[in-house]
Amino acid sequence: IFLLVHLPLVFGHDLKGFDDTILFGLEWPGENSDLITGNTEEPLIVTTHNKEKYKCFIPSLSEVPKETETKYTGPGVMEIISGIFSSTSCSYRIESYWTYELCHGHYIKQFHEEREGKTSKKQEYFLGKWDKQKTDKLAETLAMAETDGEKLKYKKIEGLSLPYVELEMTDGTLCDLINNEPRVTKVLYVCYLLGKNEIYSLKEVSTCNYEVIILSPGLCDHPSYRPTETAENNINCVPLDGSPDKPKSLLDMELETLRTDFKSLSEMSKNVRTFAIYKIDPKFSEGSAVTDIITL
Q1: Distance (Å, rounded) from C-alpha 128 to C-alpha 199?
Q2: pTM listed for this prediction
Q3: Are 239 and 31 in contact (CB under 8 A)?
Q4: pLDDT for 130-170, tens place per residue?
């Protein structure tokens, strides 16, 4: 649906309207809704490409109610990460040419091996290394940051802003493209309950400097590193100037979706007698498709 927005009415909103981590849903309560007279939310006038006009009410952002907070007494962040070092051997990522090997708490390297008969030729570069001394130093840094109340760092992954623990693996193989400086890799651990400490992504952010994201279920044990739940904010739109309760193009799209779903259902259930009855809901001035599915 293409909506033309009258901009003078939206100056009161802040830039959170451009944050794609905030969820909005469109509702069409109809012409007789109490929203027309009793709503205190800021209105926004929109017009579809069919010249249908609506007054939409933009809600104040809502948050998911938080459970009663109790003091966390479980393992610390570095204790969780150290557990990954000892319990997980290595994670791999295979690409068209290079294979990447990340041995948690030890090193990350890339290699390519070519075999000719009984002989093989191997290219290998270490992208960074880690040791116990770095573990101890990171533990101190994280403890101090928690004591000082510092905010966690976040990384946007699949549209979600996730807090992460960062390890900087240094002292990799020298890189002749940057004056023989050693290669460096930042390893970011994020919470993912279904993860297996595997490599989610690996990229070279600048010459011989890399970033790896690891999906760690163990990190979800710590409440500070769990994803923040976001409530959906409903935008209610009521018709103006005789427009239908819901835009015609939206009704057409919903009807097409129902037909597609029914076609898929028919193909899956060829041995079952299934009927789809399409009805027009009279409460919408332009009509609304409603489907009843009957299976015999």
Answers
A1: 15
A2: 0.60
A3: yes
A4: 999 999 999 999 989 988 988 999 998 887 889 999 999 99
Beta carbons within 8 Å of 187's beta carbon, 6+ residues apart: 102, 108, 128, 166, 167, 168, 169, 212, 214
Q: For residues 269 and 133, what is the distance between their CA atoms, to the nearest angstrom? A: 62
pLDDT at position 117: 79
Query: How far is the C-alpha of 20 from the C-alpha of 202, rounded, in Å?
Result: 24
Least confident of 3-12, 116-125, 128-137: 3-12
Among 134, 142, 139, 77, which residue's Cα sits nearest to residue 105?
134
Which of 168, 171, 194, 195 lies closest to 183 in space, CA to CA?
A: 171
What are the structural domains of the chain?
1-64+230-243 (no CATH), 77-225 (2.70.130.10), 245-296 (no CATH)
Q: Do the Cβ atoms of 240 and 210 come closer than 8 Å?
A: no
Summarize pLDDT for 66-91 with one digit per residue, the tens: 555 577 788 889 999 999 998 768 99
